[in-house]
Write a structure and sequence with these properties.
Blueprint lengths: L13 E7 L2 E6 L3 E5 L2 E4 H16 L4 H31 L6 H16 L3 H10 L4 H21 L8 H10 L5 E2 L2 E10 L4 H19 L4 H8 L10 E5 L6 H7 L11 E2 L3 E11 L2 E2 L2 H30 L3 E3 L8
Antiparallel strand pairs: 1-2, 3-4, 3-11, 5-10, 6-7, 6-9, 8-9
Helix pairs in contact: 1-2, 2-5, 3-5, 6-10
């Protein structure tokens, strides 16, 4: 399990941190990132939440781009911590009381699921993250509180009717169309590097094409000569969406009906022989097939709106100060 890292405790204000080989970031580690009704969120609190993301960013970006990406995740993490504090304060204002057995049950679940019931392994993981058991337990308590408050203020209020689902379907029919597909067999011949051999291969492909048009077994020919990865399956690609194929192949398949074969198609590296065994036209997905998917989409959208409205109300009644909007050295 990935445990929450504790706040970074350092005595100096600025420290050079090696994020990846060849990449150095100067980051302000101590100090206050923001205040919520006078209660501080430290820069270390925020950095602890994004340290894994920052390591991944440092593997892809450098310089100004790295600072820009890091600043974006820093601000999002700070906003998340601000909202967490607002929710916890709201819980206290409502005189919420979380029983200790609920925390114990969650901790026992974590020890069972992530540490194979080995409490000593948990303690080792906490030590690696420089967390005391009580700090971690309090974090678990806060997670439960935030989840319960979100359930009460958001998810219980989500209400998506069957009419809403049907209306979304009818208003967005183009989004629920199933693309047409072809049942495809393919013979792949790798092109040689020399001109003389290439001419011979072209002649071979043309002769094979004539043989197959005369009634030859495409599957047997594919097993015998194809250099494609599915040669052993008789060149059978199954049902494919032509849009997923390279343009030369897609264009060659476009006019073919079921049972027809294309003339040899040459690309920079291969010569292809294609046979269409069947076609499925594009169609509108049945409502019953997408109903659950649409309902999930609508519920997620409504939950996000309810959550944002809830957060806006909490922010409006709180005193929030952003103290350190950018801890990354310019």
């Amino acid at each position: 399990m990935s445990l929450r890292s504790c706040c970074l405790a350092v005595s100096m204000a600025v420290l050079a941190v090696t994020a990846a080989p060849g990449a150095m970031e100067r980051v302000l580690l101590d100090g206050v990132a923001a205040k919520v009704n006078g209660e501080a969120i430290t820069i270390g609190d925020v950095l602890a939440r994004i340290q894994g993301v920052r390591r991944r960013l440092a593997m892809r970006y450098r310089g100004d781009e790295l600072r820009e990406k890091s600043l974006d995740v820093y601000r999002k993490a700070m906003d998340a911590l601000i909202e967490r504090k607002l929710v916890l304060e709201e819980y206290v204002a409502q005189e919420g009381q979380l029983p200790e057995w609920a925390v114990d049950n969650r901790i026992n679940e974590i020890i069972h699921e992530d540490f194979d019931d080995d409490r000593a392994a948990l303690m080792e993981a906490l030590a690696e993250d420089h967390l005391t058991y009580e700090e971690w337990r309090n974090d678990i308590r806060e997670q439960i509180i935030v989840a319960s408050m979100r359930q009460e203020h958001v998810y219980r209020r989500v209400n998506v009717s069957a009419r809403d689902v049907q209306q979304r379907y009818r208003s967005n029919l183009d989004e629920y169309r199933v693309a047409g597909s072809v049942r495809l067999r393919m013979i792949v011949l790798k092109k040689p590097t020399t001109g003389k051999a290439l001419n011979a291969l072209r002649e071979k492909a043309a002769a094979l094409h004539e043989e197959l048009l005369a009634g030859g077994d495409f599957g047997a020919a594919a097993r015998a000569v194809s250099e494609g990865y599915n040669a052993e399956d008789g060149g059978d690609w199954g049902w494919v969406d032509p849009r997923d194929l390279r343009p030369e192949l897609r264009d060659a398949l476009q006019p073919l009906d079921a049972g027809q074969m294309a003339a040899p198609v040459e690309t920079d590296e291969e010569i292809y022989l294609l046979q269409v065994e069947g076609r499925r036209d594009e169609k509108l997905a049945d409502f019953a097939d997408v109903q659950d998917e649409i309902e999930k989409e609508l519920r997620a959208e409504q939950a996000e709106r309810l959550y944002r409205a809830w957060m806006d109300a909490l922010r409006a009644s709180a005193y929030i100060t952003i103290v350190t909007p950018n801890p990354f050295d310019e």
